[in-house]
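ok so for the tutorial part 2 we go from a plain amino acid sequence to predicted structure tokens. step 1 is just haveing the sequence, like this:
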Amino acid sequence: MGELRHDYYAEVIAGLMNIQRGSADYSQSLDELYAADGIAGVIVDRPAEDALSRGFTVEGDQDRTILSEVDRLDAIQHFTDAVRWSRLNGGGAILILTDDGASLSQPLNPERIGLIRDLKAYPITALNPTAPRYQDTRQANYGQPIFYDITPEYGDNFNVHESRLLKVSGAPLTYAAARGRTIPWQGRSALEACRDDLWRYREALRLTREIMRRKQQAVYKMKEMAKAIGQTLTNPDGSIAFDGKRVVMDRLALADMVRGVMTTVAVDGEDDFTVLDTNLSGISDVLGGFKTALSASSRMPVPILYGDGLSGLGNSGQGEQGIYHGLLKTTQERDIRPALERFVSLLWKQKEVRVPEPERWRVVFNPLWSPTEKEAADAELVRANARKTEAEALVVLADGQLISQEAGMAYAAKRWPELEIATEQRAVMPDDDAP
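step 2 — the prediction. this is what the tokens look like for a chain of 435 residues:
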């Protein structure tokens, strides 16, 4: 009888808990993870958007014709999308649509480009390389596919020559991993390295919600509860007249349902109902540890990941800003620049634009950060104080006859030309850095 009662008791407890034990669903694809998880979306989208948010200039583009063409084709958005796909799937590509007189499956001849009509960004998962591949081992494109079948969002697949694609790779792969890819320039997704930490943080949030849901734990003491659980009475016709297990569960569920600061719980005189309050201290520190781990594996500062924004250079956010800007600079130079420079070189070739390509030109990314008015004022104050200290040192040296007054004035005039120090006689200083 005691063993039977124990089994019934376990069933009651399991039925009352009714909590689904969560686990990391590793069957979820990267695309599904990106679509379903907000933090995964930030890891993919934010660097892609920020790396190009301030645009770029082209040295040698005197009348800004090339930048006008960039605006006409909405190239910034297309490159942003390509970088987005490279961070999600390990690669992205931009299809160049131009009126060079050839089909998409034929090589692009830059000298025959009349005008680039449009651009279209695709994830690397939409590209399927087909035979043959380049076979000249002396060329940088050795082993690269010559043709790709592209699967568009709508419509039938079509074949494209690789010269009509601007390719944006993902993060670097190990040599062994790269050998297993059908597309040689495909890299690693930004989500692959942090997937485990992302799942751990999501699980920590789920458990935290459970803890908070059960912060106030009700304890209901019923006289002879264990005895009631094991009792079942039947009618003469075999139907159940009394199910002790069901009665106990219903009483516990009713007490739990009406529990609250605005309700009253009524129990039998021999029963007891108390509420135990759980201490939640330390949970924020535990969650902070999971946040830090995800920040490290994703190379994204905690304020960016969780929407707090980065602090400026003049305060404690300098380190985080430097780390994030390092990620953006890497994205610009490693992922964006090769494709962007090839794109600009094709813009110069357009016959309808009629702008001669200069002998030297260069793509320059605009600064990632510009100071606020307060930060600029603080920096100017620091420079003014440093200049004041240096000027006072010159006065002390001159008063002590360690240097002549003329030498001090000459140094000051050369050191701070913006002050326009008027002097007829200027001695030649032996050292530009010291009086």
